[in-house]
## 1
Amino acid sequence: MPKQKRVFSGIQPSGEIHIGNYLGALKQWISFQAAAECIYCIVDLHSLTVDYDPQTLKGRIMDKAIAYLAAGLDPKKTIIFVQSAVPAHTELTWLLSVATPIGDLQRMIQYKEKSKKNPDNINAGLLNYPILMAADILLYQTDIVPVGKDQTQHVELTREIANRFNKRFGQTFQIPKTVLPEKGAKIMSLKEPEKKMSKSDGYDSCIFLFEEPDSIRKKIMAAQTDSGNEIRYNQRRKPGIANLLTIYSLFSDRAIPEIEKEFKNKSYKTFKEQLAQLLIEQLKPFREKKKELQGKEALIQTILDKGAQRAGRIANQTLEKAKKNMGLV
Ligand code: AQP
């Protein structure tokens, strides 16, 4: 039997998971579980690079673990763990930093955007973020990294770092590939549809995976659209409607032209009402599963601890190999 591919990805515990995170990343993660060896991480160290409240971090990490399980990750098939529980991530980050030109870090779009958003906290961690992400991925000899479009530049840099390291110190890392979903790789903000939907960009711009029906309805009805009245997909001229059509298509599993046809000559209001209803129904199982899991924190902590042990064993092998090849062991 051919060796199973290894898949690695992660989400930061920076805010609630939204439908962009779900459609861009989590949905792919879930489908890989059937045929690959999957390792999914809560990347808490990454979330320290912007302002945050240390008092609430632990709770937010547990919320993410609940979200992973409620969305459909299965700890029997998949390793689920918290990044900071496996020290090899930070140790390999240092080793990889010598194979990473500063200029490569400075040209990263996310670094530029987050520096602009947080002018009073442009810390070295924000710049070095992609090296930590490279360590996350390379420690597991990862074949596939399922992410949304905003993360493709970081995975590309990971490949460059790995190639440079292998060339300089000898074969150490598998070179990973990015896998984007065919559709939904970049879900846009409900308030500013030219920008991507982002956890840290305000409550009204996102629909969260566990959102209650009333607020789903309110947010979709208030979503920004153009002044026209035609329900037609045009990314450039009608970004708001194009985004809502994409969301409709992905949650209904129907093609966009079919949806355009159904809503031909109908108003934006009618379209939005039906989209809200669709989301309320489609997100219901997630809300229910989350409620079931709340109160089972001790059990979930055991899943995370076991996950960290299993992840640590794989990670330490790679770390030792990297250190040996660098002349440290
Ligand atoms: N709008 C999006 N559409 C599709 N995929 C998305 N992802 C994020 N936003 C969208 C994908 O979700 C995964 C987890 O992202 P992350 O937590 O590592 O951070 P992020 O990419 O920076 O996501 P956010 O929501 O914008 O978080 P904040 O506001 O904290 O920075 C990744 O695979 C990402 O591509």
## 2
Amino acid sequence: MLVIALTGGIGSGKSTVENLFRSYGIPIIDTDVIARELLSDNSAIKKETINYFGQEITQENGEIDRSKLRTLIFDDEQKRNALQTILHPVIHQQTLRQLEQLENSDAPYCVIVIPLLAESNHKYPHHRVLLIDSPESLQIKRASTRDRSTPDQIKKIIASQASRKQRQTIADDVIENDGDLTLLRQKVNRLHEKYCSLSASEQEVNS
Ligand code: ATP
């Protein structure tokens, strides 16, 4: 099956594009969702994270306060690396497992959402990289409105991530998310058609 790795910086529009692909019935594996589940399950990963960061990152109900955790890691590179060391090997493993489960799917292609693809040391199998790219000013505006974070907090996160240029060098396809949602929908639709036709020609070669 054709595998598309979808990436982009904070607030670039990854989840919005992911939902548009999902609306076409395309299976999605989202590494952010896997991370969220790992931190909320009663998993070894959750325990390891609390051991490292201390009880200060938990809420009264014992759940990890993800917004506190996010503030902590974007203020401190060492802590950011520590969380990545705890989470990333398991996220990688689970992604591969979910991909295996899609092997017999009838879908023409699938999308793996990997926000930190350009930064990751782990190899994620894929045929094409799709970058969702937005001007930094829009990333700041959209992410701060959505998260009720300050623009300075978002700027800090942008500075900690790969640059737009670094991401552009690994991209096969780019969606410039610099217009309204109608325009974004049209761009995703065009790519959906392209991926369906790539998948069909791949199947022809293999048959
Ligand atoms: P994060 O990295 O923080 O998870 P993301 O890349 O998944 O962010 P989204 O959540 O898809 O980004 O988008 C951020 C916000 O911007 C959302 O509230 C979304 O509805 C809005 N948004 C995305 N694209 C557009 C657009 N073209 N026009 C208007 N609003 C948009």
